[in-house]
Amino acid sequence: MKALIAAGGNARRLRPITYTINKHLIPLANKPMIFFAIEHIVEAGIQEIFININPGEKELQQYVGDGGRWGARITYVEQTGGPKGVAHIIKNAEHFMRGEPFLFHLGDNIVLGDLRRFAQRFAEENLDALFAFARVPDPQRFGVPVIEHGKLVRIEEKPAVPKTDLAQTGIYFYNDTVFEAVNSIEPSSRGEYEISDANTFLIQAGRRVGWEEITGWWKDTGKPEDLLEGNQLLLNEVLSKEAINNGMIGPNVKIQGRVQIGKNTKVWDNVLIRGPVSIGENAMIKNSYIGPYTSIGNNCVIDNTEIEHSVIMDYAEVRAGTRIVDSIIGKNAIIESSKNSLPLGHKLVIGDNSQVEV
């Protein structure tokens, strides 16, 4: 079995962060989110992976590489003409995927647990397709299955009035019959080839289609609040297995709960850290409180600040003199206290699509 990971798109809802970084490289629990998809795929016994990318993409290849670190082989496939919908990703990769069944995984979806039981059922029942559904509080944002008398009859894309609280997740198993589907459907009113339409085509064509509900949790990281919740879920999972302190801890430092600290990081002078928290390498934390569900990247400086339930990316410097919560702070960002310079007041340089509370 092969795997195809979707890692293109524009991620408009995550701007301005995604102006300068591929969405799938945004760190959750201090690891690029696409790494979690790759790890789950390899755990399912799949070594040949293809990653769909935007035309001209270079950054993602540099971070992910050839797959050697996971014992896999990774090939990059540019999406001809740019993003045209999820089903178009499969259509675009047909040359690479034909001949063997494959797992299609959206690179910005994170899930608890492994995918082996899905792969096993798909193979044992000789299915043409297998979909994973999850219960969500806002199904109108997703493809929603219509199930009548226990039978899956179609998938409705972002219905105004969902018939269930189940949502189609970004995990699909297919064989070659999917190419008939993606080559038969027409673009939707949004101008995109919808994966819901392709899946409905398979169902209504009488193909052998199965589905399962995900146990545990699943998260689509489409909005800033989704990223923060994904970071929270992953910190709970990752640090329950491993919470290693490789840093240098000074006097007057209290560490409570599950906290991971990277190499050469200094935690100094009146610091309280309450886990789950992940701190990268070569960082400096002093005179600060770091609260639960916070991840701090490499080479960051946190001074005289309280931070909780936030993602701080590499090389950020935060000397806010106040409390920061529910925030995503990008690479090389600098946050200073307004009391450090005159005239007093909030001095802001705010880019497009930013959100600030003062």
UniProtKB/TrEMBL annotation:
Q: Does the keyword Transferase apply?
A: yes
**Where does the record place a coiled coil?**
none
Under the heading CDD domains, the entry gives: G1P_TT_long (cd04189)
Record's protein name: Glucose-1-phosphate thymidylyltransferase
Q: Which residues form the Nucleotidyl transferase domain?
A: 2-236
The record's listing under Pfam families reads: GMPPB_C, NTP_transferase
Keyword annotations = Transferase
Task: Pinpoint the Mannose-1-phosphate guanyltransferase C-terminal domain residues.
Answer: 273-338
Highest rank taxon of the organism: Bacteria
Task: Write out the GO MF terms.
Answer: transferase activity
Species assigned in the record:
Candidatus Magasanikbacteria bacterium RIFCSPHIGHO2_02_FULL_50_9b
